[in-house]
Design brief:
The chain has 129 residues and is mainly alpha-helical. The chain has one domain. It is built from five helices and two strands; from the N terminus they run αββαααα. It binds zinc ion.
Length: 129
């Protein structure tokens, strides 16, 4: 492991010492360190402890790490998996503080889904699965 990665892992573990379980589902198996706002989008938040969480890996079932990172917000079935993560509100609050542009984008998508639930009209570019 490169020293920089070890340093980051140590920070992660220190920051979340008392929450060593998956924040998405509560299980304590197959944990991985997960940035809430991905580093590819916000390199500057790499060492920000408020951007660090634990999410489970995809072993036995689809893991919360993949749900948060890989799922599409514009596909209903996948959006609902994101929405159902226990940490959803907490993550959104962190995004609100750290990246208001990203937050507005996610809120816009949520509004579109709320409109869909009300009208049953699928927004342009959105899918059910
Ligand atoms: Zn999980």
């Amino acid at each position: 492991m490169i020293p920089e990665e070890a340093k980051r892992n140590k920070l992660f573990d220190q920051a979340n010492e008392d929450r060593k379980w998956c924040w998405g589902c509560g299980q304590s198996k197959y944990l991985s360190r997960a940035h809430i706002i991905r580093i590819s989008a916000r390199e500057d938040l790499k060492y920000d402890i408020s951007n660090m969480s634990y999410l489970c890996l995809s072993i036995d079932k689809k893991g919360c790490h993949d749900i948060w990172d890989e799922n599409s917000w514009t596909i209903l079935e996948e959006f609902e998996e994101i929405w159902n993560l226990k940490c959803f509100t907490e993550f959104m609050n962190i995004i609100k503080v750290k990246d208001s542009k990203l937050y507005r984008e996610k809120i816009r998508i949520m509004h579109n889904w709320l409109d869909y639930y009300r009208t049953n009209e699928l927004p342009f570019g959105y899918k059910l699965k």
